[in-house]
Amino acid sequence: KVIAFIFFVDHINIFFFLGNVCPKRWSYLAGYCYFFSNSTATWSNARQRCIETGGDLVKVTSDEQNAFVASRYSSSRCLTEGTWIGLRRNPKNLSQWVWRDDFNVKPQYTKWHRKEPMNERLDKNCTEIHPSKSIYWYGRECSARGCYICVKDANECNNYNICSGQRCANVPGSYKCSCGTGYTATKEKRKCQDIDECKDENGGCPHFCVNTPGSYICHCRDGYVTENNGTVCRPPEFSTAGTEIKSREETRMTSTKDTNDTKLFTKPPAAKPPGECVTTDF
User: Fold this and answer.
1) Run of H or E residues at 138
2) Cα dihedral value 114, 120, 124, 125, nearest 10
3) What is the C-alpha separation between 149 and 41, in angstroms, rounded?
4) With 90 as the cut, is the pLDDT of residue 112 above it?
5) InterPro entries in the record, alphabetically (predicted)?
């Protein structure tokens, strides 16, 4: 259930929170939950606190995400102290910067201030954002104290309506729907859509087809007897196909396979045995 909308007009993006997908005080964006601290810690302690929540210090990989985290500082204290993100100098190669412990992966996205990073300053080995200054990143001593941003995977499957009530499998940064009978998944497997069985040859119904969530119902016209859950419609004077019908004319009924209409045939009178004598009164 969508419970709130936040509009960032400058970035033409709409970020939203999904109720019960993220824990309390965590914010949702694009498959992940974000926690913006009010307290401060060193970079290492901040990361440890994030890990204890099931996440890690945030890894920023796009302008959209950077705008989101830079605009969501938690308190005035964070404006003066700065806020830690997960980028740090590679302890195995001080000329490189890496996300957390990804020592062999070069960052594909960075947002350094034009004077950063100061690679000649080997004391500034961790990275902060400073919303009071700009959306850009700055190097800082890892032993300094700052606010911090944690991130962890959101469990969209906690929202019952996310797959229209069908089976949901949580995957990192996303989810997939597994749809039951009467439903089909969208191309991205992000939603289950009801199949309209009535669109295909009227659902096999001889008269009326009514689509329902995950199924459909056959109805007969007024005055007809419904058989086999509406897949057979017969006039009220007839019962099951192929049975004898007792009436004054001793008629019998047969069902036409193509249209489920009925045909009436008059049963001929029995022939007289040959050579039988008939007595008449004169």
Assistant:
1) strand 137-140
2) 100
3) 11
4) yes
5) C-type_lectin-like, C-type_lectin-like/link_sf, C-type_lectin_domain, cEGF, CTDL_fold, EGF, EGF-like_Ca-bd_dom, EGF-type_Asp/Asn_hydroxyl_site
The one-letter code for the residue type at 16 is F
How high does pLDDT run on average in the chain?
77
Nearest CA among 187, 149, 179 for reference residue 59: 149
Q: If you search the block for the tokens 């970020």, which residue do you land on?
A: 15
CA distances from 279 to 23, 47, 171, 273, 275 (A): 103, 118, 96, 15, 13
Which sign does the torsion angle of CA 153, 157, 163, 168 carry? positive
Preceding amide of 274 cis, omega within 30: no
Strand partners for 171: 174
Banded pLDDT at 76 (limits 50, 70, 90): low
| pLDDT exceeds cutoff 80 at 241 | no
Q: Say if residue 256's pLDDT is above 90.
A: no
Provide the pLDDT for residue 37.
Answer: 93
Rounded Cα distance between 36 and 77, Å, is 12
Minimal CA–CA distance to 148: which of 64, 28, 62, 55? 55
Mean pLDDT, to the nearest integer, of 254-261? 36
Predicted confidence (pLDDT) at residue 277 exceeds the cutoff of 80: no
Find out whether 149 and 83 touch, Cβ atoms under 8 Å.
yes
Cβ neighbours of residue 251 closer than 8 Å, sequence gap 6 or more: 245, 264, 265, 266, 267
Pair of tokens at residue 233: 């419609």
